[in-house]
Amino acid sequence: MTTAPTSTSATGSASPAAPAAGIVPLLIGAGLPPFEAITPEQVRAHIPGLLAELEQDLTALERRLEADLAGGGLLSWQAVLDPLQRLEERLRWSWGVVSHLTGVCNSPELREAHAGQQAAVVAFGNRVGQSRVLYRALETLDHQHQSAAPGDAGLLDGAQQRILAAELRAMQLRGVGLEGEAQAAFNAASQELAELSTRFGNQVLDATNGWTLSLTSVEEIEGLPASLLEQLAQAARGAGLTAADGGEATAEAGPWLLGLDMPRYIPFLKYSRRRDLRERLYRAHVGRASGQGEGASAELNNWPLIERILSLRGDQARRLGYANWAEVSLAAKMADSEAAVEALLEELRAAALPVAERELEQLRACAARHGAPEAADLQPWDVSFWAEVLRQESFELDSEALRPYFPLPQVLEGLFALCGRLFDIQIRAADGEAPVWHPDVRFFRVLEGPGAGERAGQPIAAFYLDPYSRPGSKRGGAWMDECLGRSRAADGTPVLPVAYLICNQSPPVGDTPSLMTFEEVETLFHEFGHGLQHMLTTVERPQAAGINNVEWDAVELPSQFLENWCYDRATLLGMARHWQSGEPLPEAEFAKLLAARTFLGGAATLRQVHFALVDLRLHSQWHPGCGQSPEQLRREIAATTTVLAPIDEDAFLCSFGHIFAGGYAAGYYSYKWAEVLSADAFSAFEEVGLENEPRIRETGRRFRDTVLSLGGSLDPKAVFEAFRGRQPTSEALIRHSGLVAV
Ligand SMILES: [Zn+2]
User: Fold this and answer.
1) Which residues pair with 448 in a beta bridge?
2) pLDDT digit string (tens) for 154-212?
3) Which of 247, 284, 512, 677 has the greatest number of CB atoms lying within 10 Å of its CB?
4) How far is the CA of 211 from the centre of ligand 1 (A)?
5) Any residues with CB less than 8 A from the CB of 565 and at least 6 apart, and which?
6) What is d(CA 302, CA 204) in angstroms, rounded to the nearest whole number?
7) What are phi and psi of 469, to 5 degrees?
């Protein structure tokens, strides 16, 4: 091949893209990336040049716009948003490949090259986001539209209006509309907030790592499973601890080093029969970074940071013309107002509280049956332990034992068959037809299904699936990311969307395929749901195609929606067969999976409601002169959102990284908000009857034509209503979570 692929048609060419001589693979800027030809050296050598070029292009665009604005004539979309999008797409393509490779084939060289350029890439993003000329041009487009009569040139379609509104809002929230001293104060506060979040996160990390407890006798490890003992011994070896005889720490003989990180904390509380040790561990954990507690460093104290962060956010909100930070957060979300979020959380709270109280009684009764003294005085450090005992007694669900029923090829077959039924698409393996970054990576094409008439078999999209874990070079977890977005190339040819689907399950061993746990099956369905929204979009404006421009509290709708099908009898039993004997999953195991889904569902819901309400009210009601500390506000909320009151040392806020060191401020509620949408969407299928094939297909098509097609081109409330015929309600989520009073 002598010419580089320009605008591709990911599904067009039949052979892997090969870069043409003289073109740097990292800078091709369109089509499927030639992953193996991209090197850390190119990142170091060519990202600075690319940024310099984009910087020049941006400056040239600003000059043109300035002249246009001064001229006073009509400004066009093609003169503002299109060039901006092309500019951003060039960076997204090149930097997107680098970020992708950092996630899936990391190496010290690549990591270093990525880290070396990241600040410059972020700086360029800030430069675009704070361009005053660009902002004025966007405002002008908006004014033209507002004052246009039907048929006028300045009139924008619905997708354009949403794209424009989102761009304007994003720039406003960066302070671009502020002048002089107000802007200087805004920028200084932004800088301070960034530093405070980093410090907050680091102090949580240091406090977590700063507490350990060495266990040396077998009485202290009573109840712990072998895998945890191995971890604790490994931690002891890492800390240089040795056995009494001077030998190396082992899982069998110790010593075992306990710590506050999740992989050691969670299973210890779950399995340890030593109530006193559970208590010590729990107290240390909930007091992290509060400057107090056993062995804690007084310097690692996040309380002052919390007040400072909340005050600064309040100031920033007022500078931007909002009453508080919650309003800033909600300005870009599906939820209209704080009242709407409060109303939803109250519905869930009211449903979950009595159930959580009953669940606590069940745990007490379980402890009493076992003659445990704590039955009369159950404490927070007892909850996980008795929950695990009760769970085993109730279902004996052994997640490892289910693996043979879920070999990856069969799960994929089931998933693809489901998508065929629901959305009338066909998914075909196309391995070898696209460049990949690892031999285990697979490539698939998505085609129109038989229901599409003349268009049946036409390509719609494609995706990569990278299913297995590769410790050392691949990031943990699972995710969907955009390789190419749907758009039209300059010459008018359609660019079809391509997704990355990344999981981390165990690889095949010898003749044994990758055998998945049920959680891994759910994860695959979840990410595939995101992938479907990316791939089945019909929006051709890239800024609103697929998941782009979808409100953050609505973006988990398709992913969680698809997860629901893992619990659908026909779907699950259709794919769960023993990989050797072909035996279907026993009915009793299916029943256990269903029961496990809602086990302690009241407590789980209540916990999320507690976090969400605390987050929301800290960002709407709290201010330095309100007469209450953030902690007092949290305890007030705890009175109606917990069934075991927080103990005195509980300083959970000091480690609430989601809102103080991450991006969830006044947005934690989004978890539940999106679950309401996904459960309610699934209930449309329950209503027509999960056995009613024609109606299921019809409803699935409607889901494809609304939620999956329209992406960010339409208000999410309108998209939901187009599918469901009404606004969402929490009824289905409450039912699916097992919170309906019997
Ligand atoms: Zn997700």
Assistant:
1) 425
2) 899 999 999 999 999 999 999 999 999 999 999 999 999 999 999 999 999 999 999 99
3) 677
4) 33
5) 418, 525, 571, 682
6) 8
7) -75, 145
Nearest to 487 by CA among 82, 44, 128: 82
| Cα–Cα distance measured from residue 638 to residue 243, given in angstroms and rounded to the nearest whole number | 44
Q: Whose CA is closest to 678, among 715, 720, 709? A: 720
- Write down the residue that tokens 């953030």 correspond to: 630
Q: For ligand 1, a single-atom ion, which residues have Cβ within 5 Å?
A: 559
pLDDT of 741: 63
Structure-derived torsion over alpha carbons of residues 690, 693, 699, 703, reported in degrees to the nearest 10: 90
Cα 325 to Cα 318: distance, rounded to the nearest angstrom: 8
Q: Kindly give the distance from the C-alpha atom of residue 612 to the centroid of ligand 1, in angstroms, as a whole number.
A: 18
Residue 310 · residue 618 · CB < 8 Å: yes
Tell me the torsion sign for CA atoms 65, 70, 71, 75. positive
Type and span of the H or E element at 76: none
Known catalytic residues? 527
Question: What is the four-CA torsion angle of 83, 86, 88, 94, rounded to 10 degrees?
Answer: -150
Residue 531 Cα to ligand 1 middle (Å):
10
Three-class DSSP category at 392? helix
What pLDDT, on the 0 to 100 scale, is given for residue 196? Answer: 95
Counting Cα atoms < 13 Å in the Cβ hemisphere of 297 gives 14
Tell me the per-residue pLDDT of 51-99, one tens digit each, with 9 for 90 and over.
Answer: 999 999 999 999 999 999 999 889 999 999 999 999 999 999 999 999 9
Count of C-beta atoms within a 10 Å radius of residue 700: 20
Question: pLDDT, tens digit, for every residue of 530-576?
Answer: 999 999 999 999 999 999 999 999 999 999 999 999 999 999 999 99
Task: Report the sign of the C-alpha dihedral through residues 316, 317, 321, 323, in that order.
Answer: negative
Place of tokens 């030998």: 247
What distance in angstroms lies between residue 512's CA and the mean position of ligand 1's atoms? 29
Distances (CA, A) of 36 to 61, 444, 504: 34, 19, 21
Please provide residue 486's backbone torsions phi and psi, each rounded to the nearest 5 degrees. Answer: -70, 135
- Token readout for 595 is 């029961």
b or e along 350-364 (b: 16 or more beta carbons within 10 Å of the residue's beta carbon)? ebbbebbeebbeebb
Burial of 409 (0-12, 13-18, 19+ CB in 10 A): exposed
Give residues with Cβ within 8 angstroms of 271, minimum separation 6: 223, 224, 225, 228, 385, 388
On the question of a cis peptide bond just before residue 471, with omega within 30 degrees of 0, the verdict is: no
CA distance 164 to 4: 33
